[in-house]
Amino acid sequence: MSQAHQIHPIVMRMQGMSPRDLAGYIRHLKRACGDIGHCDPDAKVRNRQLIGTATWAQDTWDRIQDMRHANHDREIAQLRKRRRKKDLELALFHGPQDPWRPSRHGPMREIILTVNKKWFDEDLTSFLNEEGPTREQLFEQHAKEWLINNFGDKCVHARADLDETTYHIHAVIVPYYASKGERQMLQPTRHPLIRDYEKAQDDVGAWFAQIGLKRGERRKQSIRKAIRHNEAIREARASGKPVTETEVPVPERRKHVSPRHWREKQERALAARDKAVKKGEQNLAAARASLAEKERTAAQQHQAAQAVLDVAAAVAGGRIDVNSETNAPQSPATKPSQAQVIFGRALEVLRKRARKEARAELAGEFAQIRAADRVLLEIAKSLPEKARQRLAEARRSLTRPLNALRLSMKAQSSKSDQSPDEKS
What we know:
By secondary structure, this protein is of the alpha+beta class. Helix content is about 55%, strand content about 10%. The longest helix is centred in the last third of the chain and has 59 residues. The two termini are about 100 Å apart.
């Protein structure tokens, strides 16, 4: 079914009420107390009374007080007529009593009639300038007729509220009845529509079907049916009978939530959502800051690594000299990079190791030369005089450069073994 032709349910809610609630009811009717945050103050003048007089609340209260005293006077007269002295003393002691039996719901009823706001919004009569009543007028007319036809003078008040989100009608039912002994009592369960809530829903649904509405969901009937179905299955299983059906979920019972409680719940949900959004924004800001810090650290590490690679490439290409002397900066402008310092230290270690290895090799060569010299001396002893002289001259010509080389190696070895402070 399309949205334009959707059949909306008539909403009828009936709740208990006590005569002591009349004062608060009037204050709320005048928007003088309670939660009125959902009411439009500019539309308050459009609210109108449909049934009852301007003094209906005071008249109802006075009538109930008259019932209390009339019942008490009648009881006193009967007890005196019967000469029941003890009961008479008790009745005089307790005084007038409330003309109803104590109950959880109270002796009166408040009825609320409304329809989903979409049904009223779909009314195009006034927009199309067509003749005929609007949907608000139709709803109001049928509501008044239903209240009067079913409750008569027991419906002491009805009003239309138009300053809230959806048009709705409030009505107050005072179920006056005369009991045995001509006592006046408030007996709500004597009325068939109050006694049987499902019957009241059926009746109001049938009445408002005339203007295109339908009865609300039969939730209680569905709940009872599901409970009976599940109980039958459990009993069959307990008795050992074969069971082919399965249990069905029981629909939840709907509980009426006042506008004030509904808005409080919405406000709490909005506050929780705002808190979650704020916390999420803080977490996002912290994550962004952490990411930016990590990006800066990664960039610095990348720059340092690139600098090392650049210096290594320059060292390998001979474009940078990283000897130990250049590692000591002369001024901030000529300060070497960290990579140059690292490569300089590494090359200095390699140079020291190379010099040690070279000295060790030369020392071995000198030892061989001295051994060879000693062999030549032994051979020269057996040679003729003239040959010995030529050999001695050859030894002298070789000894001079060898001694110079030995002295140079000794000086280099002593210089490399000094500390940096000693060198400076």
